[in-house]
Amino acid sequence: MGIPATAIVLAEFFEQEKQKALQEGMPSVRTQWIQGPVWAKTAEQLRKGVIEGVNPLSGRPVMKEIVENLTKPLTDEEKKTGEIKRDRGPETYTGTEEELHKLFLEKRFTDFMPIVLPTKERVDEMLMGTSHDPDEVVGKMSPTNTGDYFEFWTFTVRDVAVNAVMAGCKPEYMPVLLAMLSPDPRTGISKEAISISDNGFMGAVVINGNIRDEIGLNYDVGAVGPFAHANTTIGRAWSLASINLGNGGKVGTTYMGVIGNHGNAINMVIAENEEKSPFRPFSVRLGFGKGENVVSLFEGWGILSAANWAANRWGGDMDYPQIMKDITAQQGFLFGTIFVLSPPIANFVKQKYNTIEELEKAIAPAPAFGFGEMPKAKPGAESNASTPKPAPKMAMPMGPTIPVIVTGASNNNYWSAGGMRYSRSIKIDEWR
User: Fold this and answer.
1) Burial profile 208-245: b = 16 or more Cβ within 10 angstroms, e = fewer
2) Which residues contact 110 (CB under 8 A, 6 or more apart)?
3) Helix count (H) and strand count (E) of the chain?
4) Which helix (H) or strand (E) holds 328?
């Protein structure tokens, strides 16, 4: 259009923006880098830190560079075009075991933990866990899951099997993994386990049905921990697939977690303890049949032992539903609240509420406004930057408002709560 322009971007996104510029064929697009973050700062702090500040990469005054970006003619170097050329790479790699492990690390095919090398024999054995054609396209993923910033990558049943081998899975886990990685029929997009967001989200799944015992999922002592082969490797395979089949988890470009999330290693795979729960299983409450094999997907911050919540109380007369209500009231709108109860806690709750639906209705805070809306200032109201404002409460966009999952053992009264948003549920047997 002939109008000078320059993007203004946080310096922390340098690598990400450069890769995107190259992807769009503009490797030398002019960009003004500033120091982040910029939110939660006063106008005075922004003036000093940004407008009167310096580019943290060049050390030069920001406003001086902005003027230059808008007035100086483009150099020959800046006029050059170019773009990233992507391909799937070779079908196979050769070398010694040590050389291949090193190659996988260098090419960032792993989560930096030891892997099982996906030889043809091992992949073929893994494919025996499903009747689906190895070349069948399962779905597509991108780090943003919009396809706008980073393009979608499509993947096949064989691709999933490769990552399942790397994670240490058994063939009988394949139907669960394929269900988890199948596309949402509403969008045609598969759910990644590793988000690009600087919040550092993690993934979680809840598994119901007879398959829990069939493949050895743990739903007793240590149910949410890593000490069961099925739980651990299925969760890890989801992350590896997000890296290798969805271009996720690349620090500085497709992974921007400010602090990060330890849960990104193996996510959280919860098999519900249907036998000891006084309530209907989570999948049955969603409309599936009792014993039907179902996996439900979640995303969010993770969960924390209720012992660490300020709203929790200890004593001889514990009102668990009230504590749950108090915890729910503390949660923000983004992921809402999830509760993971041990059977003893669930039985305490059962004494007051006969169903989970009754419990949810009692403890759910009334949303102050609809999902996707922001609260509007009252006419004549003045903003006071020094007065902290409570986090807005939103209705959940889909699924149960407050998921309540029952798992674990009965040797003590422990439970957890956190922020995890339900996404959708998939029938596992369709992927056998």
Assistant:
1) bbebbeebebbbbeebbebebbbbbbbbbbbbbbbbbb
2) 104, 166, 240, 243
3) 14, 10
4) helix 320-330
Residue 213 tokens, joined: 């015992």
Beta strands in 160-293 (DSSP E): 202-208, 268-271
Q: Tokens in use for 69?
A: 């970006």
Per-residue pLDDT of the chain (432 residues; tens, 9 = 90+): 567 888 888 888 888 787 778 777 888 888 888 888 887 888 888 888 888 889 888 999 888 888 988 888 888 888 888 776 667 778 889 999 999 999 999 999 999 999 999 999 999 999 999 999 999 999 999 887 766 677 889 999 999 999 999 999 999 999 999 999 999 999 999 999 998 887 888 999 999 999 999 999 999 999 999 999 999 999 999 999 999 999 888 888 888 888 888 889 999 999 999 999 999 999 999 999 999 999 999 999 999 998 888 888 777 778 999 999 999 988 877 888 999 999 999 999 999 999 999 999 999 876 543 433 444 444 444 444 444 444 433 333 445 779 999 999 999 999 999 999 999 999 999 999
Q: What is the DSSP string of 144-171?
A: SSSSSSS--EEEEHHHHHHHHHHHT--G
Beta bridge partner(s), residue 7: 31
Tokens of 407: 């798992």
